[in-house]
Design a protein that fits this description.
The protein contains nine helices and nine strands. The chain has 235 residues and is α/β, with parallel strands linked by helices. The protein folds into two domains: 78 residues, no CATH class; 123 residues, Alpha-Beta Complex (Lambda Exonuclease, Chain A), CATH 3.90.320.10. Bound molecules: iron/sulfur cluster.
Length: 235
């Protein structure tokens, strides 16, 4: 009984999540998948178990922040800090810290032991996010701290601000915003269907498979998926 009620709590939180603006976590992601999120396109429901794991990630962040707030060598300048308001993008960094000499944007990521064990370099999509945080906070250094959520091992990587990379990310988001406003579904990413992890875990994979690989008019495509859903409903 409780399992069903708890699962429902998580499913209800997922409903009607039409996106209105970009989040930092959209940076570097498949533009087509981000487009579908904005349009609230039909997506594969996440299992309640996976949704609970996101909450578990929040607890791990608290676990890491606790010692940081007590260590003499580190000063936590701010935690859970929103990027300054502007039109394009919103996001919240885990913390801005100082070692007495330099300031760093801190981003904490948790993952399972198998992925953690193989991690020799920071993940590109995580670097993109920290680069944007550094840009918006005007803090030229960042730290990506990875936590193995099964064994609680840690790995950290120090990053420096890369202006060219940030420019590229922002112009990509700017272009995607125009496509969203004009109802043009972006082309698939080059690694589709099997060479990019994003396609493997994509909640929009089913509808992406239904369209062709290039840019597609959203209004026409929407009619196609709606009539397909009606056909399935009448079978
Ligand atoms: S399946 Fe791949 S190309 Fe299609 S929307 Fe998802 S991530 Fe993008």
């Amino acid at each position: 009984m409780l399992k069903e009620l708890i699962d429902k709590f998580y499913f209800d939180r997922q409903k009607d999540r039409e996106q209105q603006h970009f989040y930092i976590t959209d940076a570097g992601k498949c533009p087509r998948a981000v487009f579908f999120k904005f349009k609230n396109a039909p997506r594969e429901e996440m299992e309640a178990r996976v949704l609970r794991m996101f909450d578990h990630g929040d607890h791990i962040h608290q676990l890491i922040m606790k010692p940081l707030l007590s260590i003499r060598e580190i000063h936590v300048v701010a935690s859970e800090v929103n990027i300054p308001p502007q039109e394009l993008i919103s996001g919240r960094a885990d913390a801005i810290i100082s070692d007495g000499k330099d300031m760093y944007v801190l981003d904490i990521k948790s993952m399972n032991s198998m992925i953690f064990g193989k991690l020799a370099e920071p993940k590109e999509e995580n670097v993109d996010q920290v680069q944007l945080y550094m840009h918006f906070f005007k803090v030229p250094k960042g730290i990506l701290l990875y936590v193995d959520k099964d064994k609680l091992e840690l790995k950290d990587f120090v990053l420096t601000y890369d202006e060219a990379r940030v420019k590229n990310l922002l112009s990509g988001l700017d272009y995607l915003k125009k496509q969203i406003d004009k109802n043009i579904i972006p082309a698939r990413i080059p690694g589709y269907p099997n060479d990019d992890w994003q396609c493997k875990y994509c909640a929009f994979r089913q509808i992406c498979d239904l369209s062709n690989g290039g840019e597609v008019n959203w209004m026409d495509f929407k009619k196609k998926i709606e009539s397909r859903e009606q056909d399935i409903g009448t079978v």
